[in-house]
Specification:
A hairpin with a 4-residue loop joins strand 5 (about 340-345) and strand 6. This protein has helices spanning about 60-65, 75-105, 115-140, 145-165, 175-205, 210-240, 245-265, 275-290, 295-300, 325-335, 360-375, 385-395, 400-425; strands at about 10-15, 20-25, 30-35, 310-315, 340-345, 350-355. A three-stranded antiparallel sheet has the order 1-2-3, with no helix packed on it. Strands 4-6-5 form a three-stranded mixed sheet. It is mainly α and about 450 residues long. It is built from 13 helices and six strands. Helix 2 (about 75-105) runs parallel beside helix 4 (about 145-165), helix 4 (about 145-165) packs antiparallel against helix 5 (about 175-205) and helix 11 (about 360-375) packs across helix 13. Its main location: membrane.
Length: about 450
């Protein structure tokens, strides 16, 4: 009987994720001979293959999402490395703060009252719970829009809370008030940090694997906290008898914590547009005629001043807030058939937008672009010719009717926005979704007679 055909020729291959493939050939006795990972081997008849080294070390697969690196965003690894550094520093700082709080409550003091310590602890917890509820109601809808900024804010607020805990025993008269304020801050950190972590997990998961990315992030944090716990066991006996040394260690760890957080947040490259990134990209487009790619825009995005833009933009406001007469409604709807109405208050530099029931992500993106273009008219800097003329009119006559300027910018955007939208898509931005803050109000209105849609 003849031997298997094609002895030595590659019959099949396999690979794990994005790793290099290894081939398989037929041996003389008809068995399959697989190449070892990283090098080829050819054994004689009956020779056993060497052990196949896994594409990733076994230990890494415990802490990294399945399919890494293809299953996550490109910024996953640098972000997680810096996030681990900040978590380690925070764990050590937290140990120092916990040690101070326990001393302040009376642990180790024979004269301390158990009931007084219990009352203080319950008051601290109840203050934090109420703060958590109020903060989630007040800022919950804004956390998705500025996830990077709120992430950094949460970690710095956490440092402030731990500093208050360390200082609390030094001021025994204000001890209860101090730790209540500290716990309130920590509860705000819990809301902001948890919500932004979920938003960033959604950004990093690229194969509908949010649960896996989140679970592995938890495993990484647990490992870091365990390492921090072991170091804390060695550190606390050294600093417990020297408050000044303890405070010095805390400031050193806090500096490391803030720096690592900044590097982690700066490493993120989010491809969806919020107001800050849209303003950067639009301003560059108006001045130079080209669209910034996500990496460049994210590097330029402000992490602090982005909280308070000079232009106030409100999307999805109720119709009754914009108009109070038929004439005002006709003015806002005249000259265009876009499914949104826009009013610009020049004195307050405030743009309000009413969205139609049919408004989708592209409409919201155009409305936001429209509002930011109006803001650009009041700033110095090069603009396309037609916008430059409008800008000169606005600066020359600040009392000019705003609805007239809005009508003219509708006409300019009919030509400008399609090119801008195509530039966004070509540069790698996701335009089918956004992270703009949009309220839930929607409205319907009659189109102007000359712009009826058949």
């Amino acid at each position: 009987m003849a031997g298997p055909a094609g002895v030595g020729a590659a019959l099949c291959s396999e690979r794990f994720g994005s790793q290099a493939a290894r081939g398989c050939s037929a041996a003389a006795d008809g068995s399959l001979r697989w190449e070892t990972w990283g090098r080829r081997w050819w054994g004689g008849a009956g020779a056993a293959p060497g052990p196949a080294a896994p594409p990733l070390p076994r230990l890494l697969t415990v802490f990294l999402p399945q399919g890494f690196p293809d299953s996550v965003s490109p910024d996953y690894l640098p972000y997680q490395l810096w996030d681990s550094v900040q978590a380690f520093a925070s764990s050590l700082s937290g140990s120092l703060a916990t040690h101070a709080v326990l001393l302040g409550i009376g642990v180790g003091n024979a004269d301390a009252s158990v009931s007084a310590a219990t009352a203080t602890w319950l008051l601290k917890d109840s203050t934090g719970m109420l703060g958590r509820i109020v903060f989630a109601w007040w800022k919950g809808s804004k956390l998705d829009c500025n996830a990077k900024q709120w992430r950094l804010f949460a970690d710095i607020l956490n440092d402030i809370a731990m500093f208050l805990e360390i200082m609390a025993p030094i001021l025994p008269i204000c001890f209860t008030v101090t730790i209540c304020i500290s716990n309130l801050a920590k509860c705000l950190v819990g809301v902001a940090g948890g919500a932004t972590r979920a938003a960033l997990t959604m950004h990093q998961a690229r194969r509908n694997n949010m649960a896996d990315v989140s679970a592995k992030d938890g495993s990484q944090e647990t490992l870091v906290n365990l390492a921090g716990l072991l170091v804390s066991l060695l550190m606390l006996p050294l600093v417990s008898d020297c408050p000044s040394f303890s405070l010095g260690c805390f400031f050193l760890l806090t500096a490391l914590h803030v720096y690592a957080n900044y590097r982690a947040v700066r490493a993120l490259v989010i491809e969806t547009l919020n107001e800050g990134r849209l303003w950067l990209v639009l301003k560059h487009f108006l001045q130079r005629g080209e669209v910034l790619d996500p990496t460049s825009a994210n590097q330029m995005e402000p992490l602090w001043t982005g909280f308070w833009p000079s232009l106030s933009l409100s999307l999805g406001v109720p119709l009754h807030r914009l108009v109070s007469s038929v004439v005002e409604l006709q003015q806002l709807a005249e000259g265009h058939q876009e499914p949104y109405l826009l009013r610009w208050d020049q004195s307050q530099n405030h743009v309000q937008v009413v969205l139609s029931e049919e408004a989708g992500p592209e409409t919201v993106l155009r409305a936001a672009t429209h509002g930011l273009v109006l803001g650009a008219l009041r700033e110095d800097g090069p603009l396309p010719r037609e916008l430059g003329e409008l800008g000169n009119q606005v600066r020359a006559d600040p009392n000019k009717e705003s609805w007239v300027i809005v009508k003219e910018t509708h006409r300019v955007l009919d030509k400008l926005f399609p090119a801008f939208l195509k530039g966004l898509q070509d540069a790698g931005w996701e335009t089918e979704k956004h992270q703009l803050e949009v309220d839930e109000w929607r409205a319907t209105w009659l189109l102007s007679p000359e712009k009826k849609v058949l």
